[in-house]
From TrEMBL:
Listed GO MF terms: hydrolase activity; transferase activity
Species in which this protein is naturally found: Paraburkholderia aromaticivorans
Keyword set, alphabetical order: Hydrolase, Plasmid, Signal
PROSITE patterns associated with the record: TAT (PS51318)
Family annotation (SMART domains): Lactamase_B
Domain Metallo-beta-lactamase residues, every copy: 93-289
Signal peptide: 1-40
PANTHER family assigned: METALLO-BETA-LACTAMASE SUPERFAMILY PROTEIN, METALLO-BETA-LACTAMASE SUPERFAMILY PROTEIN (AFU_ORTHOLOGUE AFUA_3G07630)
Key word Chloroplast present: no
UniProt protein name: MBL fold metallo-hydrolase
Length: 375
């Protein structure tokens, strides 16, 4: 297993939250008792194992209706295909996924990120036949609008269909800061409406340390910067709450509490992971602002599992130069996952490089596609 500096090395006993059915039940019980938020608690158990995982891309930038089904190694790839006349999957610059896992007779359903708009997210959820009633938990990887834009509209449309006290896992208070996009012309980049979430009966679960989600998945908690990767800051956050909107300064990391505006460093960003029986880790990076290599190494560290079966998600390499992208390819070769499935903000330079250097591990992703890991 890789070695890390004393700054980044943390005992698994101290960084994972309470595991298994007891944790999930206690979260729901807290909600039914009237509380509206919770914090993850330390875990002493290993990460859970599942027999099977199916990752469905709900929202992404591309859809190719004539792309065929295929198998890449032990991974089954199912494409959505041609929609019926008069209907269509919608694409946009955003990311959303549906995660269905099985262990024995148990099935869990998680929604991870929610795309840019509720119109796209709600349309695609319906087209893909995903039942809101089946959802056990929600996860938001970070506080960027292209990952949470569809959430509140989804909750409103499905009021009365979702489970009472449905938990939403976030990496920290920074998730709720108001933001501006700072690349090129400065633009308002919106905010996640905490009151709308609570009004919809969602329980906000803060998970700055790794947490088990719905008995089957786990999140990485804060992702330390231990590789060559550089954290870009395409947005800045305004600190404080006004008219019920924004983030509370006293709940932010100490260095940010006295600031008014700070560049995003994505300390609150999470990756979502599964330990698939006889396969290894499936690491879903979502956007990788903290670095795709850092995200995978964090998953290995907190789980104690060296084998990486799949790396999936946005790798945030589109803004990077070719040399940096190639260095990422080199690092992924050393990690040696069985498959790599880039999405969203990864960029075409990475796609070109991986097709040349890791063609047997590369899977092209489209909205509506489903990736099945395990038996």
């Amino acid at each position: 297993m890789p070695q890390y500096s004393e700054e980044s090395r943390v005992s698994r006993r101290n960084i994972l939250c309470t595991c298994g059915a007891a944790m999930f039940t206690s979260l729901l019980s807290g909600t039914l008792g009237g509380t509206t938020s919770a914090h993850a608690e330390p875990l002493t158990s290993p990460v859970p194992e599942v027999d099977r995982l199916a990752v469905r891309v709900v929202t992404d930038s591309y859809h190719l209706a004539i792309s065929p089904n295929l198998n890449v190694g032990e991974v089954q790839v199912l494409r959505f295909g041609m929609p019926p006349a008069g209907k269509s999957l919608l694409e946009e610059f955003g990311l959303a996924m549906h995660l269905e896992s099985k262990r024995g007779e148990e099935t869990r359903n998680i929604l991870l990120d929610f795309g840019f708009t509720p119109e796209t997210f709600n349309n695609n959820i319906a087209m893909l036949g995903i039942s809101p009633r089946s959802v056990d938990a929600l996860i938001l990887s970070h506080g960027h609008y292209d990952h949470f834009g569809g959430l509140v509209g989804f909750l409103k449309q499905n009021r009365g269909k979702l489970r009472t006290g449905l938990p939403l896992y976030v990496g920290g208070e920074e998730t709720f800061c108001t933001r501006e996009w700072t690349v090129g012309k400065v633009e308002d980049f919106g905010y996640l409406d905490r009151n709308a979430l609570l009004g919809a009966g969602v329980k906000i679960v803060f998970a700055p340390t790794p947490s088990v989600v719905a008995d089957h998945a786990f999140t990485t908690g804060t992702i330390p910067n231990i590789s060559f990767e550089k954290v870009l800051a395409p947005t800045r956050m305004t600190v404080g709450v006004r008219d019920g909107i924004g983030c509370s300064a006293d709940k932010l990391p100490e260095a940010k509490q006295t600031a008014k505006v700070v560049p995003d460093d994505f300390q609150h960003e999470l990756a979502t992971c599964f330990n698939v029986k006889n396969r290894g880790l499936v690491v879903i990076t979502s956007c990788s602002h903290r670095g795709v290599v850092n995200s995978v190494k964090r998953a290995v560290e907190v789980s104690g599992i060296d084998k990486v079966h799949a790396v999936i998600g946005g790798f945030h390499l589109a803004p990077q130069k070719a040399d940096y992208v190639h260095e990422t390819i080199v690092a992924l070769k050393k990690i040696n996952p069985d498959v790599v499935i880039p999405m969203h903000c990864t960029g075409e330079t990475f796609i070109e490089f991986i097709q040349q250097e890791m063609p047997e591990k590369f899977i092209r992703s489209y909205a509506g596609s489903q990736y099945i890991f395990g038996t």
